[in-house]
Fold these 3 entries.
Entry 1:
Amino acid sequence: MKVDERRCIGCRACSAISRSISISEDAGIRSITFHSHDESLTERLIEACPAGAISSGITAESITLTFRMKRCSVCGEPFATEREIEHVASLIPETHKNWLDLCPECRRAEQRRSHAWHCIRIRGRV
Amino acid sequence: MRMTARIPTVCPYCAVGCGFYITRNGMEYMQDHPVNEGALCPKGNAALDVLNHVDRLRYPMMRIGDDWIRVSWSEALDRVAEEMQRALREKGPGALAFLGSAKCTNEENYIFQKIARLMGTNSIDNSARRCHSPTIIALRRMLGTPAMTNPVSDLALSDCIFIIGSNLAENHPVVARWILRAKDRGAAVIVADPRVTPTAWLADLHLQLNPGTDIALINGMINVILNEGLENSSFIKERTSGFEGLDLSDYTPERVSSITGLRAGDIVRAARLYAKAGASSIVYCMGITQHSCGTENVTACANLALVCGHVGRPGAGILPLRGQNNVQGACDMGALADFYPGWRSVDDSRAIDELRRLWNARALPLGRGLTADMMPEADLRFLYVMGEDIVNSHPAVSRRRERLKRGFMVVQDIFMTDTARIADLVLPAAAWAEKEGTFTSTERRVQWVSRAREAPGEARPDLWILSEVAARLGFDLSPEPEEVLAEINQAVPAYRGISRSNAGARGGIIWPCPHPDHPGTPVLHTERFSTPDGRARISPVHHPALERTSPQHPLILITGRVVLHYNAGSMSMRSEGLVKREPEIRIDVHPEDAARFGVADGDAVMIETRWGRARARAKLTPRQKRGTLFMPFHFPETNLVASEIIDEKSMMPELKVAACRIWRAD
Amino acid sequence: MGKIYLDPERCIGCRSCEVACEREHGHPRISVDKVKDLAAVPVYCHQCDTAPCAAVCYTGSLRLDGDMVVFDPDLCTLCGLCFVACPFGAIELDSVIHRCDLCGGTPVCVMTCPTEALQLEDIDAITGSTRSRAAGVLAARVRV
């Protein structure tokens, strides 16, 4: 199989299918390494890739793709690659997408704050 | 072992008495239970974790040196009886002591205390000592019956609910359900607590008073009520005595404000809300009882209710929230150093004689026996502990645990608790769902629990163990719960009509139940109080001038509970789902106090009281009242620092107040 | 079918919903935390009408069906885009996706909530009951 590094968004799909594809994160960089490979999985990998980055063909050596991760604007933890975020942003219909800057944990915290703001105002005064 | 799909049971944790079903593989919610309506708190949801736990005791074990040797039941039971008889022979009944279980059934507690008394001692106690012993003393004296006057669900009918010294949202979550229903109807909720707790979140008025100033607050409220003519004069005249002795003119809002740290206007507001409402309830718990003036605190609460006539009607009552699933029952059964079954005082020889005849005994002991805190200091030769981790549940005992072992110590439990670890003999008991019998919840609701699972290994029901021990002592005491309940019918007047049939119905039956066809008595004191003259006794009490902080110990430590854990933790600390959500001890500190002592959020700190030191992780929160700290006592560290000052009337330790200091640990 | 509605005034932060959910599903799909120690709020899948998770799911594993979002694990590639796309952080991912599916009709969190903070209702019933409760409280206060 061949991987097109311009299309790949650094998601987790292919590494979940094949043991020859490994994924790791370190210091805000996600790395996906494509080792040489059991070609019988190529069909499934082509289907599973959301970005159409995988195609059939022979790649002799291992190749590692690296992706800068987006850091949460509140807590600073990396939670997704920047390309994953762009990909998601392009697909969702909403116009307000500020929450995409937050990691899921901080999105939950924000949701809690906004849901409880009225309670907090009242209880803070009591 | 029944193969029916689901077996009804009652939660083994707190005293709310929630029902649910145990199925072959798990649990199902019981939506038609009158108290919880299918709901459960996180501990109830994790209750089954206790049953198949890998740590369950499976075999009787005897200590030889530092090792545990497995022994047979017959060897173990013979040994218990031998040691008990030897201690009796060599030193007399004063050398024996028994610690009963607020988690075992009524039948088991009844038999346990019967054995103690037939052996000649009143040295039998249970964890109520550290919980509601002041309630027992004060409400018995004032109202006649030492128990909650209205059922929990009645709170939905109240127009004003005054919650003082209770964090029920964490410790009795299902009670909050009924308070919220009252709020849906427009009821006003007042919460008096030094801390901002999830219970305080529900308040319309939060009185964040200084720890230990409850009498001043309540007397201040009564002062306002009398000054504004809001008392219920006809109720006072017809149904109470002692009102003339109530002179609270000193407790002006201004004076009370300076004692409690509250705004005078808030004291007035609270008084008016409580007195003017159609039906008001007082709900209280450890913040009222766990003080050296605990008995006086309860008295003050009852005074307030009586002066306003808010007792004896739906929605109007005095509601002490009891702790353990069967602490009310253990007390009703007389597993107390100061009471026989049926609330007969140990000093009342005429009442005790009734039992003597029922039990066919030659004589029964009079006078208060050793309470739990007194046991380490006494010259005991034999101590029998049933279902109580006393080493972790009582600070005085915790600090002197080695002294418990001066004699022969038997521990009967479901886990190898820290108490079991120091015993000479450990007997494996069945857990609540592995045996049959009745449990009495905080609202006097008696519910039969049926066996839903097999006990592991050779663990046996406590009742069987006790009847085997009794047989070896020469007493013929039945191991069948229904037979014991039939004897309880004769020994405990309030339980006279209770049987498996009515206790086993959905929601059981609320005592008093004087005969089998009686529907039970959810609301007490509707026409008369259970005092000899039928009147409630108003008794003046005063704010005690207690020494609190000092330059060396400038802060006050408050101890208490959190929602995810239970008491000394023998059960909840073995539940992964609970432990991972609340894994370690923390100490809540107000940010200004933290700054004063150089402590940052998350720092390891040392805390010291005059009784000891402990280490915990600091959590800074503006919800903690300035000048106070909070530690949950589910972790052993808290016992190292908790107070040993005692309320002499009830022998309750002052667990809610201890002067302390903190510093960063290194 | 209704959705799970939360009344934040009733939540006491006991986390019973979490413990029950975890017991039933192995991994909780609801997450409770406090806000400023003055309130507590559980977070769970909103079954959004225009669900971003379904919009990014290119295999149709997560998709809209009536007023719910349904999940077919056989179609899931574990790409993790739904985890990134959920505005509420209500989806977690390890070896499988964890997301509330209302337990197939009778959510345990709703059944177990001690204070009825979580209710299963359709939107009209909820707004109706909220209005009538608020009116009742107002009327009671005016009377006093």
Entry 2:
Amino acid sequence: MSTIFNISDKIKLENYTPLLLNTYDGAAVAYSLRKLDIFYSGSAIRVRRASDNAEQDIAFVNNELDTATLETFASGTDAFVTTWYDQSGNGNDATQTLGASQPKIVSSGSTILENGKPILQDGIAMSINASITTSGYAQFAVAKNLSTGGRNIMNYYSTGADRYVLAVDTTTSTAVFSDVPNTQRLNGSDFSFSHRNIVWNNTLNQSLVTLNWDTQNDINALVAFGWISSSFEMWDMQEFIVYPTNQSSNISSIETNINDFYSIY
Amino acid sequence: MAYYTSTTKADLEAYNTLVTTGEGYNGTTTGWADIVEHPNGLDFAMLKHPNYDAELTLEETLGTEWFPQIEE
């Protein structure tokens, strides 16, 4: 049966341009405001409009967020994201049930854009109920930091005492890593934690932040994308993909795919 | 972002109910905001909704003492 599906998919791919997850599959979670898998048939996000709290799923058109439908639904008001659907096929959707913490996607009827592409604004604080056993960890995030104060964090929890984070603090003095990635990249270039100020400054702009580990096991609770709400709220985000395996051989190609779409650097 | 603070958790739970009811949240959205508990265990805070007032102490922001440090 699986062979039949594989052949079917191959035939389909001959007629369509493969997207990121078609070329680099196996993601544990994959959130984006663009389509990442040509065979993904679900929506991108579920939104709540401020005027009456009605909700609607918003899908893709030509592999990008259907902003026309989004703006029609918003009807001149603001709209907030309640669910960011997982395109990995694992069903690990990210949700936020509290109105104060739902990221904004439409402001006064217009889709919020960053560098010409839609972006989730005013903080990412969404819960993911996931149970993932990993043999590595690779994270690709297209994000923009909003604040010059407080902690500036994207992280990936295992347990409270065993967390894995990309973080910079208000100073350069605090190391907050329980493990050290073997690859850390910002906008396609290597960086090290001794240069956290560079990360801090650059993430005030739209940035592509990549982390890659050799080993990591038994991820039980994945909480995106921070450790407390005050940290979440400093991030705008357009894409967040995690692979449960080391992606050393694919990092540059995945970064190129992402940058080709977002034109970050 | 302004916050209401109180030493009584129930005050903030009531404020959350006030906003949730007033806004008519439904569907995926079930409430306004979480209660932030100070590490001292005695003080509590909640983000203020711009359209709803309460007779609680208003702070323009919460100091860093409200948030625990990440372990090194």
Entry 3:
Amino acid sequence: MIYFSLGLIILALFGAPLFAIIAASAMVGFLGSEIDLSVMAIEVFGLAEMPILLAIPLFTFAGYLLSESGAPGRLVRITSAFLGWMPGGLAIVSLVACALFTAFTGASGVTIIALGALLFPALAHAGYDERFNLGLITTSGSLGLLFAPSLPLILYGVVAGVSIDDLFLAGVLPGVLMLILLSGYALWHNREAIKKAAAEERISLRSAVRESIWEIPLPFVVLAESIAAILPFPKPRR
Amino acid sequence: MERVGRALENVALITLLFSLIGLACAQILLRNAFSIGLPWIDELLRLILLWLAMIGAVAASRDHKQIAIDILSRFMPAHRLRWVELVTSTFTAIVTGVLCFYSARFVRQSYEFEDLLLGDWPAWVFQIILPVAFGLMAYRYGLRAIRCLLRGVAR
């Protein structure tokens, strides 16, 4: 059993698809308890019966729509209109924009594709080093994870049987804390570069807000809905 | 054949996604505007979701896009990587093959017991996607393993 688990871990590290690793360990578990493996098919089929899983393809689709519509560009513009005046503004702009976009799209993993291509050259241009840029963008992809309507939270709520509305409310403060800590680190890490950095182009606040007037309310609408239970997320059945 | 398969997968995914969106919107509209709900829509939506997920998994296996850890393979020279891929692909092919076999058995049982879904539809019609999708994945990974082996031997 131990050798088998070790083998699986090694296979995973060498790049075997994770679903196969998980399936294999489930099989061994079922075999060990002498349960017929058909139960796996029944489980997969039963899993699809959870009403909440429907949210995932819909959010992912919404995320791709947003990213194709040029929302990432507008989002970067509006955050830099608000925050661009600060020293090290662009790093913080990236963090805030990524967090917002992740929240808009339900943390479905579109953020890095949508914003990364935009922010990476901009950060490099502003004089941040490459390793820092890559790290910043990949980290911020998971930053919005705690804000409504994130899919991982929904999934967690379903599996653990916790109220999803509560999870969303509980995510707000830690999410903001993460944002502040990361911004602080970005400032600290780049204190040399920031001094040298040229003044970034100023963007008019009003035009930036007008451009993305239809996107800003998205996370707030979802959060307000889940608080007011106008469109309540289905309660976990367990 | 690979080209036809890809096109079929894409068409299936797009059709499923849009019928999912259409039906979900229709249900919201019916419920809120006309205060009627069609219970079969909810059940059908979940079945569409299953099909979407399974066909998506098959589509993800075609370009090796399944989620995997690439920490070691990133630093490996190409000739050694081929042998590693041979092992991981064979492993995946076996696992999906076993899944295919047992889900086929599940579907056969459901066929024999004449399980019903959505009122009076036979359940196996909807469940058939499980063995089919796992089978296709096993086929793809098996093919991949053979290709790695041939290339490795050829060198």
